[in-house]
């Protein structure tokens, strides 16, 4: 695999790039979005709610940033700005910290990246143990290429304009890199609204990387 001069240093706790884990079973693929993927959370309750028929999976809400902290649902009147998204993320899990591309995450943390389409949506990518970045668009398969089919070495330089595809989204604003804990509980909750944070489910998210 050809490398790139611009590479973000690894902490040693990055998940492996394992798309089959997320893509092979429809019940997993259909119920986990970019947010849960970036957190490396595979939620059995989400999967259980999803019937073998794909139409049933459509009714299972994704994990959403801010839901665990009790933030209201996203709506058309509240644009998904960088500050709004970061407040939600840190509200759910205060141990997540902002960082830069050139910085190495602390021990037991690894990097994710946040981008937004200011009119429509947010999107997360994560750095894997192979130094590349991968992502999962909603119920679509996991991949490690951008809109042009190029491997992603730096999300801030990737082409994430999907306006020519079936989903008219252009993630034109890069928000931040963040360091996410990989060996302690993270709190995620599907949907949003008035659900109190005390009902948020804790997930043990960890690196799947093997070392000698």
Please report the number of helical segments: 6
Strand order of the largest sheet: 1-6-2-3-4-5
What is the radius of gyration?
Answer: 16 Å
How many domains make up the coordinates?
1
Order of helices and strands: HHHHHHEEEEEEEE
Strand content: 15-25%
- Poorly predicted regions are 193-200, 206-212
Name the overall outline: globular
Description:
The chain has helices at residues 19-23, 26-29, 34-38, 44-49, 54-57, 82-92, and strands spanning 97-99, 109-117, 121-127, 133-136, 142-143, 173-181, 184-188, 201-205. With 212 residues, it is of the alpha+beta class. It has one domain (19-193). It has a six-stranded antiparallel β-sheet with strand order 1-6-2-3-4-5. The longest helix has 11 residues, at 82-92. It is globular and about 45 Å long. The two termini are 23 Å apart. The model is unreliable at 193-200 and 206-212 (pLDDT under 50).
